[in-house]
């Protein structure tokens, strides 16, 4: 477990460097988690009170449409930070759910401990800002792609950026993420073969 913790600390230092004191403070706040395939880290409507650091596995974030149909909006893999940001920040029910697509494990920090780290260490607060900026840029890119690219173009972009995703994520979640039906995704894939 210590090796995984050290790897996480190194990943965080790559975002923004920090010293031994901050490293020890973060390490003392990390709690290990495991999630079985299909298990929820967060259900829609629950308050997100943790920020997760995914060391192994895959997580999806999804919303429910007006007919209560799940729509996948994000995939997280090793090294990703997993959170319902608005729920964490405002301590309100989440608009999204977080579900393991594979057996997953990593660490989490509870919100009060995270707030304490930010208050005590400016470097960690700055790192948090950088992580939030990356999260927002990723969301902005997804929205742009969804509104300005065709289904074929979104598929091609996903293939170019994350070809390996097809080996780890069920196709119906990928279709949902791309905003197409399962049948349309099958047709697009068949044309590209």
Report on this structure.
It comes from Lacihabitans soyangensis. InterPro entries: cNMP-bd_dom, cNMP-bd_dom_sf, RmlC-like_jellyroll. The chain contains eight helices and eight strands. By secondary structure, it is α+β, with helices and mostly antiparallel strands. It has two domains: 1-128, Jelly Rolls, CATH 2.60.120; 148-193. The strands form two sheets. It has a four-stranded antiparallel beta sheet with strand order 1-8-3-6. A hairpin with a 5-residue loop joins strand 4 (59-64) and strand 5 (70-76). The mean pLDDT is 94.
Number of strands: 8
What is the CATH C-level name of the largest domain? Answer: Mainly Beta
Number of helices: 8
Order of helices and strands: HHEEEEEEHEEHHHHH
Low-confidence stretches: none
Rg, Å, rounded: 18 Å
CATH superfamily of the largest domain: Jelly Rolls
Shape descriptor = globular
Helix content class: 40-55%
* Secondary structural class: alpha+beta
Strand content: 15-25%
> Biggest sheet: strands, sense, closure?
4 strands, antiparallel
First and last CA, distance:
42 Å
- Indicate the CATH architecture of the largest domain: Sandwich
């Amino acid at each position: 477990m210590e090796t995984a913790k050290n790897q996480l600390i190194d990943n965080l230092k790559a975002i923004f460097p920090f010293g031994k004191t901050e490293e020890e403070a973060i390490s003392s706040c990390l709690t290990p988690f495991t999630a079985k395939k299909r298990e929820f880290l967060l259900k829609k409507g629950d308050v997100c009170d943790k920020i997760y650091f995914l060391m192994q596995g895959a997580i999806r974030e999804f919303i429910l449409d007006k007919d209560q149909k799940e729509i996948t909006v994000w995939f997280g893999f090793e090294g990703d930070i997993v959170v319902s940001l608005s729920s964490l920040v405002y301590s309100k029910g989440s608009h999204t759910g977080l579900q393991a697509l594979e057996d997953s494990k990593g660490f989490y920090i509870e919100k009060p401990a995270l707030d304490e780290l930010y208050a005590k260490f400016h470097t960690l607060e700055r790192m948090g800002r950088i992580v939030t900026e990356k999260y927002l840029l990723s969301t902005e890119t997804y929205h742009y792609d969804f509104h300005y690219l065709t289904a074929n173009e979104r598929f091609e972009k996903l293939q170019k950026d994350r070809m390996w995703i097809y080996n780890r994520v069920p196709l119906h979640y990928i279709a949902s993420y791309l905003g197409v039906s399962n049948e349309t995704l099958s047709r697009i894939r068949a044309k590209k073969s």
